[in-house]
Amino acid sequence: MEISDVLILIVCATMINDNKVLLVRHADMEKLDYGDWLFPAGRVEPGEWLEGALKREMMEETGLRVIVVRKLVEHVDHYTGERLSNFLCFPSTSNIETSSELMDARWFDVSEIRRLDDIHPGLKQFLIDGKAAPSFN
């Protein structure tokens, strides 16, 4: 088996708090999605459970402790070949402390998301359609 045959697992959080969703922007200018608002996400390390990886990544990137509710969606990214698992989460702490991996992190309500231009169209539609959580719409 070659290294290119190994499936890379990514977890991301659809984090809802007070009818707002947390979106972040990467600090790494080399990333294809640099400057775009995204869900906080990260790689699953060998031997980690998906939910454990998600909790670790959220703490590392945002300083937030999270309660994982359920998996929302899972798919293989057609650009990178990575398997992405998106979970609905709620923060159990409220103070965002971004790591050096991020240039920004903010809570957005649905009306703000409707006006965003620097967000992937599929992610924007996912949030506007209320597929993240019934309370976020």
Please give a structural write-up.
The protein has one domain (3-128): Nucleoside Triphosphate Pyrophosphohydrolase (Alpha-Beta Complex), CATH 3.90.79.10. Helix content is 20%, strand content 34%. It has helices at 50-62, 110-115, 121-128, and strands at 9-17, 20-26, 41-43, 66-76, 83-91, 102-108. Strands 1, 2, 3, 4, 5 and 6 form a 6-stranded mixed β-sheet that branches. The model has no long low-confidence stretch (mean pLDDT 86).
CATH domain topology: Nucleoside Triphosphate Pyrophosphohydrolase
**Could you report the average pLDDT, rounded to the nearest whole number?**
86
- Multimeric status of the protein: single chain
End-to-end distance? 45 Å
Major beta-sheet overview: 6 strands, mixed
Class by SSE composition: alpha+beta
Strand residue content: 25-35%
H-E order: EEEHEEEHH
Number of domains: 1
Number of strands: 6
CATH homologous superfamily placement: Nucleoside Triphosphate Pyrophosphohydrolase
The Cα radius of gyration reads 14 Å
The CATH class label is Alpha Beta
The 3D shape can be described as globular
Poorly predicted runs: none
How many helical elements? Answer: 3
Helix content: 10-25%
CATH architecture: Alpha-Beta Complex
Task: Summarize the entry for a quick read.
It contains three helices and six strands; from the N terminus they run βββαβββαα. It has helices at 50-62, 110-115, 121-128, and strands at 9-17, 20-26, 41-43, 66-76, 83-91, 102-108. Strands 1, 2, 3, 4, 5 and 6 form a six-stranded mixed sheet that branches.
